[in-house]
Amino acid sequence: MNTKTIRLSAIALSVAALAACSGPQVRYGDAKAVETVNANYGSTDLQMIAEAMTRSLLQSKAISGSKDAPIVTLADVKNKTSEYIDTRVITDKIRTQLMKSGQVRFAVSVSEMQNQTEELKRQNQSGLYKNSTIAKTGNMQGAQYRIEGSIASIVKNTKDVKDVYYVFNLNLINNESGLLEWADEKEIRKTATR
Amino acid sequence: MKKILLACTGMSLVLLAGCASKPPAPVESAYIGQVPADPPKNPVISAEALKADSKSIAVTDIYFKKEGKNLTFVEETRTTTDNNISSTIVPKTIEVDADKANASAITGGANSSAFPVKFTDLSDPKATSPGTASPPVPVVDAATPSNSSSSTNAESMKRSGYQSNYEYGELRYLANPIRGLLIKSGYKVVQAKSTPAVPNQGDEYFDIVKRIKASDFGDADYVLYGVLAEVSSTDNVSDVPGTKSTSQQMTLEVTVDFNIVDTKTTQIIASFVASGEGKDVQIDGRDTGYKPSNAKLMKLASLDLAEDVRKHLADQNFITNNPGSAGQLRNLKTRLNDDASTLKVYK
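Predict the joint structure of the above. Result:
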């Protein structure tokens, strides 16, 4: 074994060791890019649903015909599919887009009430705050409407094909009258073949 | 010739331009130097009536009539020894509120355990006539020692009933915010003479016309008087949905029947029922044993009552909306300056 061979071996070993330390490769992708990894519920479905529902809701008479931006709250979106879907992400995304439009104001939803009551309790009942600056108990604004809905799916499998049909349903309900002021649905069909 | 032709052409053009122009637009409403007043809506509160001086009004304290019931127990112990009968009568009287008495065993109400006797109205001859009231139950005193040589027998009889009484008076804490809003509305508020209730007072206590004739309200043009219809306090606890907390809500609610009477004609100018609510909300208050401040509740209730009175007075055109606002003061000043003979027409 000559000196040249030894040197080359040493360099190769060093490169191999460095490569082992560097870990997996990470790269940023486009968050809006269409995701087709499999037929399960994914980010593209979330974006399609949120966009379609927001557009439709903003065109509804209850929202567009209102003189002042109506106060709305988020209620439950039921997951009736066999998959685990965090429906809160869907409604949060819809809420964000509606808020950006400036045509709707949102009151805290039931799931956010714990923090709200704790804050009110801290300000009103601790005795630590200047009276004129306290956010007083009893002045929360009630929502005129609530948004609720459901997502359901039909899944069919063969040896080579998986067909998934999602239907997302959203309703805007007048809290005082109980009337359904607006409703719309978004259908998504995904087929995966081997 | 050329000059004449040019002059004729010029004239024609001017005439054509005149015909083509739109008709003159109506003169826009313009207020110069003075803002128009709201037209006086209530026939009584006219510009003429207010021209020299604002009208004066007396506001009474809130009258109330409280029903009380005297519960009377009569315990009679009759002791029979051979041929002698001696009797000891021990009367007891407890004064309770009417609602407590009504909720007692008479109706099988919630206070049945607190007042576990059947009460009868002692002033009602039907209730106390024989055969209608429950017969007294003789109770043999078991503690009495029996003697074989001389027979001694003690019987205890208990009777009970109630007598209604009524208390009349004035609540002195609720009317001041109402006086304040009337002052802000431009009225002169006159102090009313208080009316102490006399012994065996009846409903003539509320006879406002009698009091007007007795000059209890000085030279006031109007008298606003209210009679307390109901006062209730509640203390409820409810869950706050979506949290682990509860909300303790303590409320004091007063409902008052109001009338405004013209002292000259005794005509009722406005009449309504107003209510006010004082509320204290405490999150998890029951857990911490929170006690509400009655003074705070009373203040909130009186302010809320005044606000409701303001709405009703505005609805019935006795005052303008938003008393105390700059616009209202301006209107009032204008109304005071206006004279029916010098009415201004604003275009």
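Chain A touches chain B at residues 109-114, 117-118, 120-121, 124-125, 137-138 (CB under 8 Å).
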